[in-house]
Amino acid sequence: QVHLVESGGGLVQAGGSLRLSCAASGSIPSINVMGWYRHAPGRQRELVATVSSGGNTNYADSLKARFTISRDNGKNTVYLQMNSLKPEDTAVYYCRFIGSFSAWGQGTQVTVSS
After folding, report:
1. Using one digit for the tens of pLDDT, what is the confidence trace for 9-60?
2. How many Cβ atoms from other residues are within 10 Å of residue 12's Cβ?
3. What sign does the CA torsion over 109, 74, 34, 29 have?
């Protein structure tokens, strides 16, 4: 099992930046994918970005210009740097782990004010 703990959410003005972190603990397969999804009110949960243990990244097309995903394999931590935030980025951001099994974090709220 893998336990995910997210941090870094909060309230920010439009145009600002936030950095989310997600630390994984437990029995972590060496080959895995970690990433971020988000769920805004009235919308379906959507992919933000993922990064594999080998460093391959995948982004939602609409976000790749402003968001950057990275990871520290030694710390089993994935990061999401979000720049030029917009009110429509307001959502609960969930960390996701995919290996021989999958897990979700509890979510962290990101609110962007106009």
Report:
1. 999 999 999 999 999 999 888 889 999 999 999 999 999 999 999 999 999 9
2. 17
3. negative
